[in-house]
Amino acid sequence: MVDALAAVLAETVGQRAGGWDLSGEIPEDALRALGTRGVLCAAVPAEFGGQGLSALANGELTAHAGVLCGSTRSVMTSQGMAAWTVQRFGDDKQRVDLLGRLTGGELAAVCFSETQAGSDLSAIGTRIVEEDGEIVVDGRKVWATAAAYADLLLVMGVHGAGAAVAAVPASARGVTVEKIPGPLGCRAAGHSNIRLDSVRLPKDSLLVGSRLPMAMLGTIALTYGRLSVAWGCVGMLRACLAAGTRHVRDREQFGRPLADHQLVARHIADLYTLERTATHACERAAESWDRQAPNLASDAVLAKYVAAGNAAEGAARAVQVMASAAAEDGHVVARAYRDAKLMELIEGTSEICQLILARRALEDVP
Amino acid sequence: MSNTDYAGTLTEEAARAALTDFLELRTKHVWEPATDLFESGAVTSIFAMELVVHVEQTFGVTIEGDELTMENFRTIDAMVAMVFRLKAGARRG
User: Fold this and answer.
1) 3-state class of A178 per DSSP?
2) Given this model, what pLDDT does residue B3 score?
3) Model pTM?
4) Residues of B in contact with A220 (CB under 8 A)
5) Most buried by CB count within 10 Å: which residue of A143, A256, A257, A269?
């Protein structure tokens, strides 16, 4: 199953990722093809039209996407997180309807961040109010990955004493999506800022089970995103390792292969170690998810923290080893170098991950 | 611990004890059945998610839609009541 889906990815992305990075855009038909063929949210259960992949299998598929194209993988993370959010917080009717759409070719983005609410989601200013049997959504969202392509926006806002998530069609009156022109990394992932001006929707657009405290809602939704980002980082590391090892084997300087120069070999050893340790952390977190072990939330934070840091470090090593051979926009290693830095920022910055992990460690003190 | 430990024979007392054990293990606090977990500040959002998953796994229930509210997790007693409500619903369903 994973192999078949990975083949769909390889066939759809082909050698085009570099061009997409330069143009800042993935052709919409490519994304819709990936969506209808089940790649973008492959963990959705079969009863809702998905592929029913385990977290481990979905993780390997995500890493595969990460090897090919960081932007495509980002869209996959968004779609998967949207689907997970619906699966977790929707009622039966919402799950059947929305997951059917997300596995049927529609694209989705999750809108959490605002200018004043990044790490601190409690500062969210977007409001979701019930009025005359409808809901009204008002607010401004920033840096929503994949929103430029999305048919459906899952918008988190203040609702009553807590928070909630509304499923907002991008075509609804009052919704304005503005693509961010030049993101540092994942340049074709469709990052966008979004204005929601008195967007009126049927009441059942509010995910029934999402009426929770902001932090809890964020944690549950983001746990999927963290695991997905972490696997994406594993993919970047694998791409860098493959390109770097091929280069040091084939290129000669001072009369022998680069790999025979000890200082170069050390970079390769470190790159290999970064890829392996990131993989192990991701496998561990995915297994916790699949067993539904309570520590899945903190394992996902650990995996994301380790993998994003390793990807940033590993991509920098790969650029160092390959020098001019990789120092050009569009090159797989140059893309990883820029994309990996973003991974240290999204779905919980490395510093937020550190705070969570420190708290977790302190809780374990007898 | 899996749901089979409680198959058919779960008592409120056993459920309360199991939840209290888990909470005390993870938070290193002593919890009374009616103490507000969230007001205490001892429960982080990460831990709240763990709690949801733990309750689902331990008692073999699925908490979603209307049941996934903070009120249902506010105290040990509230969680026990929710578990029994969900189990009764599953038997009827």
Assistant:
1) strand
2) 46
3) 0.94
4) 49, 52
5) A143
